[in-house]
Amino acid sequence: MGSKALVPTRIALPWPYRILLAGNLAFCMAGLVFTKLPSWRMFEAIPDPRYVMTDATGRSVRVEDYLPHDAYSFRAQTLVNVALFVCERGAAPAPLALTVGEQRFRIKRVGKRCVSRVRAHARR
Amino acid sequence: MRVVDTYYRLLAATLASLVLADLHNDLWGFQAGRIFPYRHIPIFPLYGRPGLVVEWTAFLTSAIGLWFGIRRRAALWLGAAAMFASLTQHFSNHGTLTLMVLVFTAVRPPLDDADLVGPNMLLARWQLAIVYVFTGLNKVIADYMGGQSMANLYLALRDPLVPREWFAIAFRHPGVVALSAGVVLFELLIPVILSRWPRVGVALVVAFHGGITLLMPGILPFGLIMLTMSVLYLVPLRAAPAVGADLPPRPMRVRGSS
User: Fold this and answer.
1) What is the per-residue pLDDT across B139-164, written as a single tens digit (0 to 9) for each?
2) Which one of B142, B245, B247 has the shortest CB-CB distance to A44?
3) Are A22 and A59 in the same domain?
4) CB burial class (10 A; 0-12, 13-18, 19+) of residue B150?
5) Structural domain span for residue A21
């Protein structure tokens, strides 16, 4: 009564584990085709992080001061969301002007909330 | 030291590093409302600083249990619960990966090296290969190898442990193209290297993630969880029992016998 392999050890996964693994692999493969799906993506498309943000007095506002230190991807939408956060908290006097590449945004207070508006392209 | 002990200690270090990373990344300010709730999953409310203290306590308790071998199964589930809670507050890839590894391990916590080739631990081994290979493939698809993404990342580095200028040449053309290609090559080949030459593979994982951590200390837990999984490859697969293997019988306890 020793141990006797009936199938190669390299596939020593019982059926429930194989199904789990197959599902995992299938999801990751779907992520290769459908880029909106969550998948294992790390630093594969970091946008240019340069931006200019100023408050109503013309003073520069640093987005980095309002983001966790593990935020390394400064997409335009992230920057706009941070600007809205800064505006709603009253951390800088509104309106704020944000320029990201060729896009320009104006973030202004409307009642208790702040809203962002896309303005003309920066280089026009 | 047995591989299983190294595995548990690295897993414990990963959990402790999550607390360190939270401190470094100012999750305290995040929960206080001072920092923008970046990567917060909106359907879950932020639980504030008291919740963060509970989360950190759970991580550290779990880490102590795993390191010293005290109630390891409970420590694994506690760590998994804390990790799940943490992900609802501030989502991250490495957090998701840590949760998966904790759950895979907790299903049947390994007691010795032979258990590291049990089915649940083979899933953890597979997971390392999946993360590296699919990260590499997604980079190829996203045209990462042109180097622009890494050049932009260099500009976004905020708090490296050493001056980022030391690495400037690697992030400028043409060096950045070679660096980007090297990263993808590493990610696609490392599972093979770990399978064929596990010690070399583990050393490469240490070097690769050590370099990343020097420039981006906020993602230290990512390097540690990848290292934790990589040491599983130190136990050869031939030690794994096959499905349907005729295993030696366990001693039977007979009712009434002394």
Assistant:
1) 999 999 999 999 999 999 989 999 99
2) B142
3) no
4) buried
5) 15-44
Alpha-carbon distances of B223 from A52, B7, B21, B171, B212, rounded to whole Å: 33, 14, 12, 21, 8
B230 with B193: CB under 8 angstroms?
no
- pLDDT 10s digits, B215-224: 999 999 999 9
| Distance in angstroms (rounded) separating the CA atoms of residues B132 and B232 | 15
> pTM of the entire structure?
0.89
Q: Which of A47, A49, A69 sits opposite B159 (nearest CB)?
A: A69
Number of domains in chain A: 2
Tell me: do A40 and A59 sit in the same domain: no
Closest CA to B61 of B73, B79, B43, B39: B79
Write the CA distances from B203 to A21, B2, B73, B187, B224, integer angstroms: 27, 18, 29, 14, 13
What is the rounded distance in angstroms from the CA atom of residue B238 to the CA atom of residue A8? 9
Q: How far is B139 from chain A (nearest CA, A)?
A: 5
Residues of chain B neighbouring A20 (CB-CB closer than 8 A): 123
* A2-54: pLDDT as tens digits: 444 444 445 578 999 999 999 999 999 999 999 888 899 999 999 999 999 99
